Amino acid sequence: MARTVDPRRHARRRLQIIDAGLSVLAERGYEGATTAAICRRAGIGSGTFFHYFATKRELVLAILELGTAETHEQAAALDGRDDPVGVLLDLVGGWAADAADPRIPGFVRAVAGVMHLPAVATALQADDRAQREVLLPWIERGQAAGEVRRDVPAARIASWLVLLTGGFLERVATDDAFTAVGERDLLVRTAESFLRG
Amino acid sequence: MARTVDPRRHARRRLQIIDAGLSVLAERGYEGATTAAICRRAGIGSGTFFHYFATKRELVLAILELGTAETHEQAAALDGRDDPVGVLLDLVGGWAADAADPRIPGFVRAVAGVMHLPAVATALQADDRAQREVLLPWIERGQAAGEVRRDVPAARIASWLVLLTGGFLERVATDDAFTAVGERDLLVRTAESFLRG
Amino acid sequence: MARTVDPRRHARRRLQIIDAGLSVLAERGYEGATTAAICRRAGIGSGTFFHYFATKRELVLAILELGTAETHEQAAALDGRDDPVGVLLDLVGGWAADAADPRIPGFVRAVAGVMHLPAVATALQADDRAQREVLLPWIERGQAAGEVRRDVPAARIASWLVLLTGGFLERVATDDAFTAVGERDLLVRTAESFLRG
Amino acid sequence: MARTVDPRRHARRRLQIIDAGLSVLAERGYEGATTAAICRRAGIGSGTFFHYFATKRELVLAILELGTAETHEQAAALDGRDDPVGVLLDLVGGWAADAADPRIPGFVRAVAGVMHLPAVATALQADDRAQREVLLPWIERGQAAGEVRRDVPAARIASWLVLLTGGFLERVATDDAFTAVGERDLLVRTAESFLRG
DNA sequence: CATGAATGAGTTTTCATTCAT
DNA sequence: AATGAATGAAAACTCATTCAT
């Protein structure tokens, strides 16, 4: 009658590995992040790792999926707002704030570096699409309300907002003088100016 | 018995390996680009590879340095021009055009993925600095002439122009609907609008 | 609080694991038969497996011992017969019939493949000896009665009868055109001819 | 202008590994024969092993193919003979003599133990077929000449001769009292008696 | 210079087995 | 008894790099 499966325990353990993986991947890149290093960081044995993830690659995918899910949750939290441009700038500003966690840009770089793995490319594109899908309806509402430029189709505008946040992330990672906190305001203003056209 | 090195022959061989390396790195990422694969692509034996580059990493650094050198050459070609904003937009537009060569974004991603290697980080930052240094004097001249916004220091503006081209490159690599040719015009217009403030 | 072991339940469980082990070993060989696979087949958890067998190897030994015991039981069932050659041919024919169970040759192959484990070698030789010991008295009685050749010592004749059944088993396992049912008759005739000398 | 590929050297090295593999596989079985052990025996580094064989399994297949090729060569050496039964008994006797090399039965057992690997099963059946194909024409000639029984089709007789040698091999491997040299004569006599019917 | 055979450190992954519940 | 999460030793295999020819 023993029931050993405690889903809570399982989920906690899983997150613990994901967290360690995120750190080590950000620090050392995909190949530098050996499973041994991740296990050491997570404080588990190598066997345990493969109890939770069949493959190192699967861990990466799980982290990416977590991010995609988070993006979708953000979308839900915006229900009820009525200022399209404000919403869009909040989203862009929020993503820029993520760059303040030094692990995010490192992880993004690490994962982009193995984009030639089809599964990674797919997950990365899903993440990308999620961001654009969150933006799209608000851009359309803004256009309908005359608050957003109409000379560029909504979908392209979405891509350009993602371009701005992507470039921002990369800049923070590359250039020590360019900090997420210090440049965020200019990002939001630039995005607004872009939206107005 | 003296075997004098024919520098012409040597340089040609070197470029041949660099070209193969660029392709294979773009396609398969840093670790996926085995020296064996690069040698196969270059049509040489593995021993020959190490005659020209002491290390796989050194090949990557050589490619990056080539890019940095190219950037400096671009700067020299602008001597004599007198329209700062025009020069800046030509530079940004030209970098965007690079993204049309599908190997460039792939190579950039691959290299960013191993940025945890100190030598690579250094070379990448040198490249980055080169771009900003090319922009900087023209931004300053533009500000002096009143054609470029003055509310943001010239160095930061340089960073932001690089941000735009970096984000552009990434976008082209990620999103099939976002093409270098199709979006270049909007990039230039957005850069101009940013410069005007 | 004493939990008394129900020996009936215990024995049933044990046989259930042995049965699963026999199947999986036959299908996948010794190393291919992971304890996980055997547990899955038996419908038990991995922990349970080790309640019944201290080691995967011990399971194999248990299966072999079961076979050896069966051979001894066969011997007992022959008490009272008076036709030595008939008995010998019944034994050989019966063993050949075992080959019709497709698990038998597979299991035998799997176990022979790990004969380098001393315990397995010992168990296999015990099984072998059991077969020869069952045969031996009947060969001797047949020789005494003048029905079995005397130019070869009884023990060697026993070895040769085992050779025939062993070769038969192997053939059935290797050659699809060679079926236990179809060739059994020729086996018995060949054994008889061998016994007559 | 360096030409490093010396096919002679390559073939010698390859055989050296095959020889070591044969020994270690015979001694320790398929899984017990780690690539490390084989390399140690062959006096090479692990990298060299995989220079010659892409996989441990491929080494096994190479050994089996060598055996199959040898069987075909034997067939060629019999051209011109005119005594079918003599030829058949020479073949059977020759195969029995192989059992005197203690590595042969051990290797056969080891390989049979991983017959669940499709490639191994195929190679093993090719080997088996080769033996039967060598026997078949001589059985047919013997039947035509009235020297071989006609109540059993030639192909089945071939299977039975292989059955005898297979059982013989197994016996030598299992039973210390059963030696290849001591029992070979009885094998040939038994085979002859079987052929006469 | 050019070659490719040889190397072995380092990686991911598997799996029998243990043990707390 | 029964369970399955946790473990870590061991295995196959990869790949940058060296070096004799």
Automatic annotation (TrEMBL), chains A, B, C, D:
Keyword DNA-binding: yes
HTH tetR-type domain span: 11-71
TM regions (residue ranges): none
Pfam family, one: TetR_N
Superkingdom assignment: Bacteria
Gene3D superfamilies listed in its UniProt record: Tetracycline Repressor, domain 2
Keyword annotations of the record: DNA-binding
Entry annotated with the keyword DNA-binding: yes
DNA-binding region residue numbers: 34-53
Protein name in the entry: TetR/AcrR family transcriptional regulator
Organism: Isoptericola luteus
